[in-house]
Write a structure and sequence with these properties.
Layout: H1 3-16, E1 19-28, E2 31-43, E3 48-53, E4 59-65, E5 68-72, H2 75-79, E6 96-98, H3 100-103, H4 107-111, H5 113-121, E7 132-136, E8 139-146, E9 149-154, E10 161-169, E11 179-186, H6 190-206, E12 212-213, E13 218-220, E14 226-229, E15 234-243, E16 251-262, E17 266-277, E18 281-289, E19 304-312, H7 316-335
Parallel strand pairs: 6-12
Antiparallel strand pairs: 1-2, 1-11, 2-3, 3-4, 4-5, 5-6, 7-8, 8-9, 9-10, 10-11, 13-15, 14-15, 15-18, 16-17, 16-19
Helix pairs in contact: 1-5, 6-7
């Protein structure tokens, strides 16, 4: 059987799928020593929800929504990754935002059915290639040799993809993360798609408020905090932070939690959040007021300043926008209106 028409039929079916489930392994195309096992469901809008096997052997979760990728992994996973943020101790067993490059795979950008179909077409078999009949897991299928890998397709119509081994799977436009992938396909029913979107909306609404961000690295730019207190007990704290990852683009939300302490007056706290650009610096400040009453005999108090620096994955507005985007994508996927032109999320 001619491989070209068979392959195109299978890819066309993939392109029209509302969602696919992929189970297998991925790695860096240039370094296959660190192979990650994964099972993930990806919709035609690029929403993805899956699990992966960490180096420690434990199973971890990940999802991608509106172009934003989050992991929930144990401490062993984070110990093997070079991310040194002040709030790194909060990463284990909580959602943490990462880049697709850090993870090694862009599920929404590469595995969404229309995008995967486009990438596979770029590796289509030669014009005179023949499909070879063979058994895969005891089932008769057709093997099709591609320009950069192999695809297995059902032997009976309608012909659909069963498995792929791609040496370098990258977005068709060439921009983004490339991965070596060896994975099998499984059908996804409507109930699974509905549950995926329900889970992602729940995560965004209930769990991402405290999610941290490992995409960039932050640190104090100055060892000493600035600030002072005025007569009457109004105090301001100033901290200067910097981004030190070496990245040249992107930004990260940083939060300063400050505390003002005096043995007699007690402790008061404040916090503030700002957006820090890659390679940049940012001044953060927050204030409290002890509201001391005027006195004919003023007393001088020694106030101790302390501050803790941390990251946040999304602002409150960005979380609301993510929830709204997921609800729109859910409707588009279930109604069949989603496709190649589904928008990817903006950086936040």
């Amino acid at each position: 059987m001619s491989a070209g028409p068979l392959f195109e039929e299978a890819v066309a079916a993939l392109e029209e799928a509302a969602a696919i489930q992929i189970q297998g392994q991925f790695s860096d195309p240039d370094d296959t020593s660190d192979v990650v096992s994964t099972s993930v469901t990806v919709t035609n809008t690029g929403a993805a929800l899956g699990t992966f096997q960490a180096r420690s052997g434990s199973e971890a979760d990940y999802f991608e929504a509106d172009g934003k990728l989050f992991l929930k992994a144990d401490s062993d996973y984070w110990l093997t990754h070079d991310v040194f943020n002040p709030d790194g101790d909060a990463y284990p067993d909580h959602w943490v935002r990462v880049t697709q490059e850090q993870f090694g795979l862009d599920p929404g950008g590469v595995l969404a059915p229309p995008k995967l179909a486009e990438s596979l077409r770029a590796q289509a078999p030669s014009d005179n290639a023949e499909a070879v009949e063979e058994k895969l897991d005891g089932v008769v299928v057709y093997r099709v040799d591609l320009a950069g890998g192999t695809a297995w397709i059902t032997s009976e119509a309608p012909h659909t993809l069963v498995r792929m081994q791609i040496e370098e799977l990258a977005p068709a436009d060439g921009e983004g993360v490339a991965s070596r992938i060896d994975a099998s396909f499984a059908e996804v029913d409507t109930a699974t798609v509905e549950q995926l979107y329900d889970d992602l909306v729940a995560y965004a609404e209930e769990e991402l408020g405290s999610a941290r961000d490992a995409r960039l690295e932050v640190a104090w730019a100055e060892e000493e905090l600035g600030g002072d207190c005025q007569t009457g007990g109004a105090c301001t704290m100033i901290g200067k932070v910097k981004e030190i990852s070496g990245a040249t683009e992107g930004s990260i939300l940083v939060r300063m939690d400050g505390s003002f302490t005096n043995d007699e007056l007690g402790e008061k706290t404040c916090n503030t959040t700002g957006s820090l650009k890659a390679g940049g610096t940012l001044e953060l400040s927050c204030s409290i007021d002890y509201a001391l009453a005027p006195s004919p005999d003023p007393v001088t108090y020694q106030i101790e300043f302390k501050a803790k620096l941390s990251t946040r994955a999304l602002s409150g507005d960005a979380r609301e926008e993510l929830v709204a985007a997921l609800k729109e994508q859910r409707e588009a996927t279930l109604s069949g209106d989603a496709g190649e032109d589904a928008d990817e999320g903006e950086e936040a």
